[in-house]
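Input (structure):
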C-alpha cells in the first residue's frame, strides 16, 4: 500500500470514529422503545445522568453494600420510555417483566458500582438493578428479589 492510500484509510477511520457515538463493544445497555428504536448506553452516557448512592443489604451478599448509579426512572426518561411494563434481559438470558411504577414509587438504582468498585460481568455487572430494600419492609420479599436483575444488558418497552 502506498503512502497516499494509507493516509486515506487513516482519514476514513478517524471520520468513522467521530460519527459513531459508541463502539459496539462499549455499549453496556440497550433500551428498545415501543416504536422499535434502540437507545444505546455506554459508561459515559450512564455516568452523564445524575449519580446516586444507595446503601442496602441484598439477598445475595453479606452485610450492607453501597451501590452507585443513576435512578432507573432517569435512565428510562433519557431513553424516552413511557410504557407501564418493561422486560429486563440479562447476560445469562435471565428475563423478567418489571412494572415501571416501581421506579416512580421507589428510588431504584441501575448500579454501576458496588462499594466504589465497577461492577463487571463477572460480578453482577455491568448493571445491577438495586431496590432500596432496607427502607421499605414490603421490598424485603422474594417477589421483589426477582426484580433485582444483575448482569443487566437490555430493557424492552412492552
Ligand atoms: N441476571 C440474573 N439476575 C437475577 C437472576 C438470574 O438468574 N440472573 N435471578 C433472580 C432471582 S430469581 C433472585 S431470587 C435474585 C437472587 O438470585 P441469586 O440468588 O441466584 O443470585 O436475583 C434475580 N436476578
Ligand atoms: Mo429466585
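Output (sequence):
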Amino acid at each position: 500500500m502506498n503512502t497516499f492510500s494509507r493516509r486515506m484509510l487513516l482519514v476514513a477511520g478517524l471520520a468513522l470514529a467521530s460519527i459513531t457515538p459508541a463502539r459496539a463493544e462499549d455499549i453496556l445497555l440497550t433500551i428498545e422503545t415501543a416504536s422499535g428504536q434502540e437507545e444505546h448506553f455506554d459508561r459515559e452516557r450512564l455516568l452523564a445522568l445524575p449519580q446516586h448512592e444507595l446503601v442496602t443489604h441484598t439477598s445475595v451478599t453479606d452485610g450492607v453494600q453501597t451501590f452507585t448509579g443513576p435512578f432507573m426512572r432517569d435512565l428510562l426518561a433519557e431513553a424516552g420510555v413511557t410504557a407501564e411494563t418493561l422486560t429486563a434481559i440479562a447476560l445469562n438470558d435471565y428475563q423478567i417483566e418489571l412494572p415501571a411504577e416501581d421506579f416512580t414509587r421507589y428510588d431504584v438504582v441501575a448500579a454501576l458500582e458496588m462499594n466504589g468498585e465497577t461492577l463487571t460481568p463477572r460480578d453482577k455487572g455491568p448493571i445491577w438493578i438495586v431496590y432500596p430494600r432496607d427502607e421499605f419492609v414490603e421490598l424485603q420479599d422474594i417477589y421483589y428479589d426477582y426484580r433485582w436483575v444483575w448482569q443487566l444488558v437490555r430493557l424492552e418497552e412492552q
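Notes: The pocket of molybdenum atom (ligand 2) is lined by residues 145-146 (CB under 6 Å). Residues 3-19 form the longest helix (17 residues).
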